[in-house]
Write a structure and sequence with these properties.
262 residues; Rossmann fold; 7 strands; alpha/beta; 41% helix; seven-stranded parallel β-sheet
Length: 262
């Protein structure tokens, strides 16, 4: 198999759920560039129209759909159109509220888990189930978090959802491997997006990051897109059940002030 064919998605249909901005949009652009007919999905398809037009102007195949991952009826309607016709499902949709654990409301708890975990589970039942029934295999990629691997303060409900995605990844991989469906999870590190940019404005946050990981810079959504293409392509056909951190080394390294005298 040639290098080009290892990473080609030509002839594939990919659903990128949560593709209106940030990580989801960056991934959708690269999946389309790799040759897949790419469906950009989010709550408001109107927001995606400009991005779809831009992709088509570059000669790529793309379309958009509306889906609300907090609404079972919306998920079922969306899945009904694509069940049995999807080769790649990438779940990026998510939400977050940062609070002390004791301060979360029941409504916040239910909404975060509903979008980040329950909705994704339900969508996978339909789309993943279609991959199993179709007999052609497929790829499912979840976008987890550092919370899929460790704990950071003030993210307790978010951590439940993202740790749950890591567990779901492993079980889906175990159940569906025999049907040639590979399931993996990308765990982003500190990625600068419109949703968290205010939190990262203070200098002390960057000073802390500089000492916390091998690569001291913030990540970008584009830093994740290449891995998403790899996990969607034939090159990763023997990779499944993995939670892969894209985090500048945060989960595996630490800096310190010591330097050798000579």
């Amino acid at each position: 198999m040639s290098l080009e064919s290892l990473f080609s998605l030509k002839g594939k249909t990919a659903l990128v759920v949560g593709a209106s901005r940030g990580i989801g949009l960056a991934i959708a652009k690269e999946i389309a560039a790799a040759g897949a007919h790419t469906i950009l999905a989010a709550r408001s398809a109107d927001k995606l129209a400009e991005e779809v037009a831009a992709l088509k102007a570059q000669g790529y195949s793309a379309d958009s759909r509306s889906v609300d991952m907090a609404d079972s009826d919306s998920i079922r309607a969306f899945a009904a159109e694509f069940r049995g016709h999807t080769d790649i499902l990438i779940n990026v949709a998510g939400t977050n509220v940062r609070r002390r654990m004791q301060d979360y409301t029941k409504e916040e708890y239910d909404r975060i888990l509903g979008i980040n975990l329950h909705g994704i589970f339900e969508l996978c039942q339909h789309i993943g189930g279609g991959m199993v029934e179709g007999g052609k295999g497929g790829k499912i990629i979840h976008i987890g978090s550092l919370m899929s691997l460790l704990g950071i303060p003030f993210l307790s409900v978010y951590a439940i959802s993202k740790a749950g995605l890591a567990g779901l990844t492993r079980v889906q991989a175990a159940e569906w491997g025999q049907y040639n469906v590979q399931v993996n999870c990308i765990a982003p590190g500190f990625i600068l997006t419109a949703l968290n940019q205010d939190m990262w404005k203070p200098k002390h946050m960057h000073d802390w990051l500089h000492g916390a990981q091998a690569n001291p810079r913030m990540g970008t959504p584009e830093d994740l897109a290449g891995l998403a293409v790899y996990l969607s392509a034939p090159a990763s056909d023997y990779v499944t059940g993995q939670v892969i951190a894209v985090d500048g080394g945060y989960t595996t390294t630490a800096n310190w002030p010591f330097e050798p005298a000579y």
